[in-house]
Design goal:
The complex is a heterodimer of chains A (about 725) and B (about 325).
Chain A (H helix, E strand, L loop, with lengths): L1 H9 L4 H21 L19 H36 L2 H12 L1 H22 L1 H34 L12 H22 L9 H21 L3 H31 L14 H5 L4 H30 L3 H22 L2 H15 L1 H9 L3 H25 L10 H18 L9 H7 L9 H4 L1 H23 L13 H28 L12 H26 L3 H30 L4 H26 L16 H27 L4 E3 L3 E2 L10 H34 L1
Antiparallel strand pairs in A: 1-2
Helix pairs in contact in A: 2-5, 2-6, 3-4, 3-5, 3-9, 3-11, 3-25, 5-6, 6-9, 7-8, 8-9, 9-11, 11-12, 11-13, 11-24, 12-15, 13-14, 15-16, 15-19, 15-24, 16-19, 19-22, 19-23, 20-21, 20-23, 21-22, 21-23, 22-23, 24-25
Chain B lengths: L1 H28 L14 H8 L34 H16 L5 H10 L25 H12 L7 H6 L3 H15 L5 H11 L5 E2 L2 E2 L14 H9 L11 E6 L4 E10 L2 E5 L5 E5 L3 E7 L9 H4 L2 H12 L8
Classes of the chains: A mainly alpha (about 725), B alpha+beta (about 325).
């Protein structure tokens, strides 16, 4: 029955591909149509409605649905390829099968994304013709490229998925062929080097240059380098798939960025710049970085939800074990992406502020200040639930009970941090409190918890606590640490090189802080001490890092880890948390440097402690095999909750990003003169996003069901 | 699968229900649903729509118990700090202002001043951080500003629509003129424009006897009109001022010197380059010197260097540079 339905809707065989191409063709035709439209100057805006529906809410809903599916389609291949690479190096077919199972979820999602994209484009062009005419006039070249890249993505995806079994096995390619690929890799790497040093490529922001280098050029070079047989060729196709996906996302981001920070436009709205100016507008790359990490976390958690649903419905112990493991891997990938996400968000927020103080104030202290409180609730929940899932996972690890005693302390730290994070600095006040505030915008009691320094401090503590949970989980079934000395030169070199790189990350910022002229931040010379103090603290952090490495090499790695974790926790949470308030009072522009210093130390700590841990427990004596499948059903609901929460949060953040423009289609250039030109309330936002989340989840359930049918069919 | 869905779906609905409840509660807490009015009359009702809508006044101010913002003074009667609502308070503030300035300020004058020049008389204990409401992104029109004044005056004050709209005092009219000039220039913020000018233009142009001499003096530039100024910034070669044409001098050895011809005496000429450096050339060494009216010494990539807001700000700043006689 189900098979008939499948064939009836999509035909058979490569039906998903055909459907996807249909969407792409529609997009392309649309692209060709609008490309013929000249760039409108600021004519009077025309608005239309479809069946009397509020056009803004319709477009909002479609955009949200497109983004949900798009994020999944872009996020899943990222970690599918990573898992495939892990499987290929371990020669463990379990990983390869898992990567394939993740990829099987993609084909239907991809077609749905394309169809929703087409629907969104039609809605935009028909309901907002003036605005879209203007955008198409400026971005017509980018739109063509966007449509063409879809071909690349489509072919890469279907080659990756349908070629999985075909590109397995077989011997090594001939030496000359391998040499050609290596040569190509070296040429691309050399071009990449020239690109990153600014010798080639147009003028661009540093972040754009690094984004393109790290996500396009470097993976391409690595992809060619590894090709030596059919399997590595398949991995290369996976890398290409990610490159196409990222490029598509970056192009679409440039439109969203342009709407917030337009460049190359004169006062009458006429476009006088180049396409590159418009493409590489101020906010395009910060949004792309944030979205990239968000997609990875989101893709991981949606795949985790798939595993959870399968686990709940599993009938056999084998199935339970498989989906438990799948859920664990998905959650692990999602947490890895979640950890740097707050910092990417901070960077984006800073750039929004730099673009327009009005937009920035509106974000943190205006229309969206309460929306950010909801966001803090959601992100805090993500971390707390992730930790809960890890702790639940410890029940399946023989020997992990030794570490249960730490959980209550971690939970305490998480709850206190969470409470501080979502404390607003200006709760609704009684008239008495207004009097006490004497004109200040900060609450007499809560101000210390509601301000940025406190929030930055606790975010770092939440991340450190989550990392600590992960360390406990990792060493759950390991008896004791092993000698690093006995592991030969390789281990020592790896610890020194990777640890050294982590310390160098902190050291370079210490040098910056120690040499920075306060005038760069528009501060008088006597405020230098507030910058220097950060530098001294970072030097202290570096010294602790060096001590940790030396101790690890002397087989006292655990003490080294404790020292570095403790110093980092003290520096980023307590010292810089307090120093942030001092700086805010005396030299507020330095506050952003405080945040960067916190980030650098935290990342350095995660890298250095992880690398020591990897060797400390390498081939350590096990207390027993992990009992995959021996998980409570409650933990699977936690996994599902994580997915619901991140999806709601994504919708909420989209509301904020888009709403920051206020009643402008294009900030400061094209005003929204429609009847919907006002910022909707948080209640409207939750209705709109909640509806989209519900439909997306139903769509996912449908996709998972279809995927199940397809896999049953192939098993038969 | 079906059994699993029946378990998971209610769970999802509960989570979404909590999400909706949080959104609802927060909306109620912060003043309820808001809508905008596309076009408003100069009336308290119109001003109220602007205040709680696209004017975004509620972002920083509350009115009594309505709203939760505390960055700016509360505009209603609220606790000991605000014993009077805004309309009545404006009368008191105007008296203080008159004493301080030695000029007669009415309540309407005070109110209009606080919107046109928010930093002029800041309420004690608050920072001078109010956005310029007639500049992007808020960009209220003069009519909308009058409506907001009417709304605030109606909060416990004596509403005099003539003083606000049809027969404003000299003081108020001066503020209205300032707003109109800024609006004419695309709604830029002249104060922010002064900073953009200092960063981008003052090195070459002179204004109020300060700045460089490479480009024309900009005192009274507003007389040339908005279109000329806009074109001069974005396409400087299209509107060259006489005496500021670009010259290209080619030496006998092929070297080119491009800039303004700032001296031509005896056997020498001076070429002032865009950087401000002066190059003296002996006429005997020059193979050819020609005027190029397609080029300007002024950079032609300012549109790339400036944001749209910078551009609008600087336009409004330059539009305020009136000729001496007109001031």
């Amino acid at each position: 029955m189900a098979e008939k339905l499948w064939n009836g809707i999509f035909g058979s065989g490569l039906a998903g591909a055909r459907f996807g191409k249909l969407g792409i063709t529609a997009l392309l035709v649309l692209g060709l149509t609008v490309a013929a439209t000249p760039a409108f100057a600021l004519e009077e805006n025309v608005y239309r409605q479809f069946m009397g529906i509020d056009s803004r809410r319709l477009v909002w809903f479609l955009a949200q649905m497109h983004l949900f599916f798009g994020a999944f389609v872009l996020g899943v291949p990222l970690f599918a390829v990573i898992i495939e690479v892990v499987g290929n190096s371990n020669k463990d077919p379990k990983f390869d099968n898992l990567a394939y199972e993740f990829t099987s979820l993609l084909s239907v999602a991809y077609a749905t994304t394309a169809a929703l994209g087409g629907l969104l484009a039609f809605a935009l062009f028909t309901l907002y013709p003036t605005f879209m005419g203007y955008m198409a006039g400026i971005f017509k070249d980018v739109m063509f490229l966007y449509a063409l890249l879809f071909f690349g993505e489509t072919f890469a995806l279907y080659m990756y998925y349908y070629g999985w079994h075909w590109l397995k096995g077989g011997g090594l390619f001939s030496k000359p062929a391998q040499l050609v690929f290596k040569g190509l890799s070296l040429i691309i790497a050399a071009c990449g080097l020239a690109f990153i040093m600014g010798f080639i490529g147009p003028d661009m922001r540093v972040d754009t240059r690094w984004f393109m280098f790290l996500l396009y050029i470097l993976p391409l070079a690595v992809g060619f380098w590894i090709i030596r047989d059919r399997k590595t060729t398949h991995i290369f196709i996976g890398i290409l798939l990610n490159i196409f996906g990222t490029a598509i996302m970056q192009l679409a981001n440039s439109w969203a960025g342009f709407m917030m920070s337009p460049t190359g436009v004169d006062g009458d709205g006429a476009f006088v710049g180049t396409v590159w100016n418009a493409f590489e507008n101020i906010l395009a790359t910060p949004i792309a970085i944030h979205r990239m990490l968000g997609n990875l976390a989101f893709g991981g958690l949606v795949a985790g939800a798939y595993a959870a649903v399968k686990f709940i419905g599993a009938k056999t112990a084998e199935d339970k074990a498989h989906y438990d493991w799948m859920g664990y891997i998905s959650n692990f990938v999602a947490i890895a992406a979640l950890i740097p996400l707050p910092f990417a968000g901070y960077y984006l927020g800073r750039e929004v502020y730099s673009t327009s103080a009005v937009m920035g104030n509106n974000m943190m202290g205006g229309d969206f200040s309460w929306t950010f409180i909801i966001q803090a609730m959601l992100v805090g929940s993500l971390f707390v639930i992730s930790n809960y899932y890890l702790w639940s996972g410890m029940t399946r690890i023989p020997g992990a009970e030794r570490y249960y005693k730490f959980i209550k302390y971690i939970l305490f730290a998480l709850i206190v941090s969470f409470a501080i994070w979502l404390t607003p600095h200006n709760l609704p006040l009684t008239s008495l409190e207004v009097g006490q505030m004497a004109g200040s915008q900060y609450h007499p009691v809560l101000k210390f918890l509601g301000l940025m320094p406190a929030k930055n401090a606790v975010v770092n503590l939440i991340i450190l606590a989550t990392f600590f949970s992960f360390l406990l989980y990792r060493r759950g079934n390991m008896l004791d640490a092993v000698s690093i000395r006995d592991q030969g030169k390789g281990a020592k070199i790896a610890i020194i090189v990777i640890g050294g790189a982590a310390i160098a990350l902190v050291a370079q910022y210490a040098v910056t802080m120690l040499g920075m002229d306060p005038a760069e931040l528009d501060l008088p010379a006597d405020r230098a001490e507030y910058i220097r103090m950060i530098g001294y603290l970072l030097v202290f952090e570096c010294a602790a890092g060096v001590v940790a490495i030396i101790l690890a090499l002397m087989d006292k790695g655990k003490i080294g880890q404790v020292i570095y974790l403790a110093v980092t926790a003290f520096n980023v949470t307590i010292f810089l948390g307090v120093w942030g308030f001092v700086v805010m009072e005396k030299a507020s522009p330095v506050l952003r440097n405080v945040a960067v210093a916190q980030f650098m130390q935290l990342i350095s700590c995660l890298i250095l402690v992880s690398v020591i841990d990897a060797f400390l427990f390498k081939r350590a004596k096990s207390l027993g095999e992990l009992k995959w499948g021996k998980m409570t059903v409650r933990s699977q609901y936690a996994l599902l909750l994580l997915t619901f929460v991140i999806t709601m949060n994504m919708g909420l953040m989209g509301f904020i990003r888009s709403g920051l423009r206020g009643d402008w289609h294009i900030f400061g250039v094209m005003r929204d003169t429609s009847e919907w030109a006002y910022t909707p309330s948080n209640f409207v936002m939750t209705q709109q996003v909640g509806g989209a989340v519900l439909l997306f989840m139903i769509g996912c359930a449908f996709m998972f069901w279809l995927g199940g049918i397809a896999s049953k069919k192939s098993e038969d | 699968m079906n059994v699993t869905i029946t378990r998971v779906l209610p769970f999802l609905l509960i989570v979404l229900g909590i999400y909706l409840w949080i959104g609802y509660s927060i909306t109620e807490l912060t003043g309820g649903e808001r809508k905008t009015s596309a076009a408003v009359d100069v009336s308290p009702e119109g001003g109220e729509a602007i205040y709680w809508g696209r004017g975004r006044c509620f972002t920083c101010h509350s009115v009594g118990g309505q709203g939760s913002a505390v960055r700016g003074p509360n505009h209603g009667q609220f606790g000991e700090k605000f014993p009077l609502p805004m309309g009545a308070r404006a009368v008191e503030r105007a008296k203080e202002r008159s004493e301080k300035e030695g000029t007669e300020f009415t309540a309407v004058d005070y109110m209009v001043e606080s919107l046109a020049s928010p930093g002029a008389y800041v309420v004690n204990g608050y920072k001078n951080e109010m956005a310029v409401v007639y500049a992007p992104p808020i960009s209220l029109s003069l009519k909308e500003i009058k409506a907001v004044v009417a709304y605030l005056m109606s909060l416990g004050g004596e509403l005099d629509m003539a003083a606000i709209d049809t027969a404003p005092s000299e003081q108020t009219q001066a503020f209205y003129s300032k707003i109109a000039a800024a609006a004419e220039a695309g709604g830029g913020d002249p104060s922010a424009g002064a900073i953009v000018y200092e960063d981008n233009c003052s090195e070459c142009h002179m204004l109020s006897e300060e700045g460089g001499e490479v480009g024309p003096v900009l005192d009274g530039i507003s007389a040339k009109g908005l279109k000329f100024i806009a074109e001069a910034i974005l396409q400087p070669a299209k509107s060259l001022t006489k005496g500021f044409e670009t010259y290209i001098a080619i030496n006998k050895d092929g070297r080119q010197t491009i800039g303004l011809k700032t001296r031509d005496e005896g056997g020498e000429i001076d070429i002032t380059k865009a950087t401000g450096d002066v190059v003296t050339l002996a006429k005997g060494d020059i193979k050819e010197i020609k005027m190029d009216d397609t080029k300007s010494v002024m950079p032609d990539d300012l549109s790339e260097a400036m944001t749209v807001k910078d551009y609008q700000d600087i336009l409004s700043f330059l539009m305020l540079q009136k000729p001496k006689a007109a001031e």
